[in-house]
Structures are given as structure tokens and as C-alpha cells.
Amino acid sequence: MQDFLCIFRKKLITFLWVLYIIVFAFSSKTILAESTVIPNKAGQSEFVLFSAPSTIQDFLATHIKLPDKPFANDMAQRAFLRRTKTEIHELLATQGYFSPIVTFDTQIKNEIEIPVIAIDPGPLVHVESVQIEFQGAITQSDEQQQKKINKWRKAWPLKADAPFRSADWEEAKSVLLSQITYEKYAAASIVKSEAVVDRENAQVTLHIVIDSGPVFYFGELEITGLERYDVEMVENYRPFRTGDIYRKELMHMFQIALQGIPHFGNVSVNIYPNISKHKAVPVHVSVTETKTQRIAVGGGYSSNNGARVEVNFSNHDFLDRAWRFNTALRLEQKRQTFLTGVNTLPNQNNVYYSAGASMQRTDIEDLVTIRQRVDTARTYQTRNLLSQFSLNWQREEKRPDGAINQTVKALALDWRFRHHVVDDPVNIRRGSASEFRLGAGSEFIFSDQDFMRIYGRQQNWWPVGKRDVFYLRGEAGYTLAPSRFGIPQEYLFRAGGIQSVRGYDFMSIGVREGNAIVGGRVLATGTAEYTHWFMQNWGTAAFVDVGSAADSMKDMDLFLGYGAGVRWRSPAGPLALDLARGHKTGTLRVHFSMVVNF
Predict the structure, then answer these.
(1) Degrees to nearest 5, angle at CA 234 with 231 and 239
(2) Which residues contact 6 (CB under 8 A, 6 or more apart)?
(3) Mind telling me which residue stretches traverse the membrane in this protein (predicted)?
(4) How far is residue 481 from each of residues 5, 127, 440, 583, measured CA to CA in Å?
(5) Burial class (CB in 10 A: 0-12, 13-18, 19+), 220
(6) Cα–Cα distance measured from residue 491 to residue 408, given in angstroms and rounded to the nearest whole number
(7) What are the extents of the domains in the chain?
(8) Residues 303-312 pLDDT 10s
(9) SS3 of 379, please?
(10) How far is 351 from 343, CA to CA, in rounded Å?
(11) Would you tell me which of 97, 198, 338, 567 could form a disulfide with 539, CB atoms 3.0–4.6 Å apart?
(12) Per-residue pLDDT tens over the stretch 91-138
């Protein structure tokens, strides 16, 4: 009996120890589960929890819909967990995790058993090797094209040892294909695309084959939507001719040119890359004509001329010839203008003609001018170049406060040349713009004075880092004449204000006559400006301006201005609000305007 009790006691002790170990293990497991569960940051649920590394927690919680009410029964819960496990495998594969381990556990919360989905994503797959092959006409191209191929291969982002993600893989292929179809090979396509995953070694081998197809050439235009206007009107705006090698950029330029004239609202330019027509692929142009007449009312403000109100009437089918007729009344605090004129459309040589008349009154720095003017011009203009010859006659009344009034008449012949190459016409980061003007009049031909005005301006932009821009501007002018008297103010020079020397009032630097500042025969100004864009559309700028205007070189007295400002990228271009100090006067001035680059 004693032996039986001894054996029973030993078995009971053993049983209690086993029970204790089981309870302890269960309790530890519950505590461990509680310590590794990360609260859901997105798609939160009180009925299912994720236990996963933070690197994937937000991603999974964003893409997996969790239940917002308790499961109806155990079968519904098991179905949800099976479905979720499959989704997790699919989602993690897109992020480069091809060997995840998904297990299920439970957690007691408020006396309710809640399922916990535990996820071990496994190793992140990296690229082992990349093979990019080409076939088609591109393999028979010249040395220049081979350099482009090498450049494309070098720019391929998913290089060896790079983390692999499906989104990066698809984007890389899309970018490469768009680069190839951008010029010559409009029908290029991906004929093979493989990403072979080695789960054991967490590596992927990439292989892509692109067939360029044949070289495409532009064919004839196929235009739809024209009712009032002739086909030649559209033809004259295209930057390519039949037989030119296809370039997507040229079609884009064509569309922008048509959208830039008031005759059309919606414009679409495209081709259908049919390989059978690659030697002369038709260019499809679809346009929607707008109303021919328009009245517009607008307003604005500039620290140069103050507040502005404008009324404009335009007719872009003048005399039923698609000419553009325009009449405008612009009232500013320092300047009031009435103008009217008509422009022809560019011909196939990018040449158009214009004629107009205007009346203007200005009151700036105690100088009142009243001018009547008529002019005509011939203009050659392309995307990057403008060359214009014009002839104008004007009569100007000059009324300086405290000095003698004068009436001036002049018939002047002008030539203007401008060339610019910039990355973005609205928000420039890199580029240059050059401008040169030459104007002359003679007292033998309806002018009160012999004169020749020479003017030049150079602007340059350089990118700094990822966002910043450094800008330099310089301008100089000289009017060859016996004196400034008898010459209209348009052919003389004053400085100060926006796009000149900030820190000084608009046109406040020049020659003093009585109490007024009038134009002199010499000009030189320059600007150095650094703009830091701390956000996509907001930036700050620091600048230094220097320059002067005088009646002769020996009278030049340089004015220095410096300061800082705020920049905002509006849809129409950057707006500038600057606070500048005039070094010579010590005064602070606020300058506000749309930044006019050229």
C-alpha cells in the first residue's frame, strides 16, 4: 500500500509539472503574440490583427480589407484567413518578397478570441542580372543610334544587386519603350519580358527583348473639323514635311502651335503606327473651331505701373481671311494705352505681316509723354527664333515737370532678333536667351533728328542641385546721335524697377530735366539671382542688381540694389514678390510682378 501511494504521489507530481509547463507555455505564447502585434494604421479592425515587420505593415494594412464586424461563424473566419493568406502572398510578390511565411494565431482581448495573422516576409529579392536585347531595323542603324542604345542600357534603373519590385520593373520597361518610340520607331514593342525568380537564393534574372519595327516617315496630313478655314492654315503650322523621319516631339510642337492660335479650341495630333504605312504614315489632325469674335475684360497689378484694367476685342477671322484683328484699351496708374492692329497668319515659310496704330499716355517720374504711332512689320518666327523688320512713324509730346515741353516726330526702321533655347518656357531651369535690336531714323526722312539705337540683352539659367536655379542677366544700349533732344523716349534709355535695377522706382534712373527723369543715350544693367525651391511650387530668391542710364559714358553712375523675395509657380508662370534695398538711397521697395523671362 505504501508503495502504491509513493508511485501515485510521483505520478501526481509529474502530472502537475506537465500541466504547469503547458499553462506556462500557453501564457508565454499569448504574451509573445501580444508583444509582436502591431496595431493597424490603416483599415483598422477590432476583429483581426496583423503581426508583421514595420516595413510591410502599412503596405498590407492599406491594401487588405479587414472585417468591420465579427465573423458569423468559424467557417466564415477560416474562409477569410485562407483568402487573406493568398492576397498577402500576391501583394508581397509585387514588393519583391517571394517566400513569405504566413501563420495564424489568436489573442484574447476583452474575453474574445481574435485571430492574429503573423507574417514573415522572408528575404527581399534582388536583381542578379539584366539582359536587354533589340531586334528589327534598330539593329541596322548607324553609330549615333548605337550610342543611344548604349545610353538606354546604361540608364536602365534595375541594375544588378538592386531590390526588385514589380512596379519598378513595369515602369522601367515602359520608360525604355517610350524612349525608343519617341523617334523613328513608332511601332516598337516588347516581344519578350521575363523575370525569373530564384526563391532559394532570393535573386531574379531579367530578360527583355524589344522589336523596333521599321523606321517611320511622316506622310500627308488628314485633317478633320475644319469648317471656316482652309487646309493651308493648318499646313503652315506643321514643323515637318512629308518624307521627314518621324519624331514624336515634332507632333507635340505641331499640336502646341495650333493650340496657341485663337482659331481652335481642342486640338489633337497623332498617328496610327501601321507598319504597312511606315514609309508615309498619315498624320491625323483633329480640330474644333472657336467663335470668331471675343470680348475679354481683365485686371492686374505690377509695382512698375500700378493697378491695371483692360478691355479687349478680338476677331480672328477678319475679312474672312483668318487674319487676327485686335483692339484693346488698357488703363494703368502710370500708363494708359489704346491700340488696334491686324496680323496675317504665318505662311509655309513661317513669315507673317502686321499693321497697327496706337495712342499712349505715360506719367512716370514727373515726365508726361503723349504718343501717337502707326507701324507695319514683317516677322519670321519659329519655336526658338524671331526676326522682325518694322517701320513706324510716331509723334510724341514730352512734358517734363520744371523743364521745356517738346514735340518730337520720327520715322524709324527697326530690326529685332531674338534666339532662345530653354528647357521649359514657363518655368526655366536651364537655358539661354539672346536679343539684339537696331533702330534708326533720319531727319531727311520725316524725323526731327538723326539717330541710331543699338541694344542687346543676354540671359542665362543654370540648374543647381535638384531644384535650385542660378540666373544671370545683362543688357546694354547706346543711341548714336548729336544729342537726346528730338528723339522719342522709345529710342532712349531709363532704368530702375522690375527686370532692371530693383530697389529703385520704375524708370527713376536716367537724365534729369527740371524735376523729371528722361531717357538718356547710354544704358547698362545686370542681375545675379539665386532661387531656392523648397517646395514644388514655392521658393525664395536672393538677388543683386546693378546698372545705370545716362546721356554719355562719362556720366554713368552705377546704382546698386539687392534683396530677397518669394516665388510661386502659378499656371501662367512664376509670380515674384521682392523686397529690395537701393544702396545709393538706403530705401526699401517692394516689387511685385509676373516673372517675365524673355
Answers:
(1) 135
(2) none
(3) 12-32
(4) 134, 73, 10, 32
(5) exposed
(6) 12
(7) 49-120, 126-211, 217-289, 293-597
(8) 888 899 999 9
(9) strand
(10) 11
(11) 567
(12) 888 888 888 888 888 777 767 778 888 888 888 889 999 999 999 999
**Domain 126-211: top CATH class:** alpha beta
- In angstroms, the CA 490 to CA 123 distance is 73
Handedness of CA 531, 532, 536, 538 (dihedral sign): negative
What's the number of CA atoms in the CB half-sphere (13 Å) around residue 359?
2
Residue 44: which H helix or E strand, with range?
none
Domains 126-211 and 293-597 share a fold: no
Phi-psi group of 597: left, alpha or beta (phi > 0 → left; psi -120 to 50 → alpha; rest → beta): alpha
Enumerate helices (H) and strands (E) in the chain, giving the number of each.
7, 27
Rg over CA atoms, the chain: 37
CATH number listed for the domain at residues 293-597: 2.40.160.50
Q: Mind giving me the DSSP string for 317-337? A: EETTTTEEEEEEEEEESSEEE
Cβ–Cβ < 8 Å for 549, 509: yes
Strands of the 189-198 sheet, one edge to the other = 126-135, 203-211, 189-198
Closest CA to 524 of 489, 482, 478, 490: 478
Cell numbers for 535:
517646395
Helix, coil or strand: residue 29: helix
CATH 1.10.287.3240 fits 217-289, yes or no: no
Say which amino acid occupies 186.
Answer: A
Confidence (pTM): 0.74
Cβ–Cβ < 8 Å for 254, 269: yes
Q: Which residues lie below 8 Å from residue 200, measured CB to CB, with a gap of 6+? A: none
Quote the CA–CA distance of 485 and 410 in Å, as a whole number: 12
pLDDT tens, residue by residue, 180-207: 999 999 999 999 999 998 888 889 999 9
**439 neighbors 414 (Cβ within 8 angstroms):** yes
Give the integer Cα–Cα distance in Å for 413 and 390: 6
Cell of 46: 477590432
Instruction: Give the integer Cα–Cα distance in Å for 583 and 338.
Output: 37
Query: What is the distance between the alpha carbons of residues 224 and 594, in angstroms, rounded to a whole number?
Result: 37
Kindly give the pairing relationship between strand 306-318 and strand 323-332.
Answer: antiparallel
Question: Helix, strand or coil for residue 176?
Answer: helix
Q: What is the pLDDT of residues 51-88, one digit of tens each?
A: 788 778 778 877 888 787 888 888 888 888 888 888 88
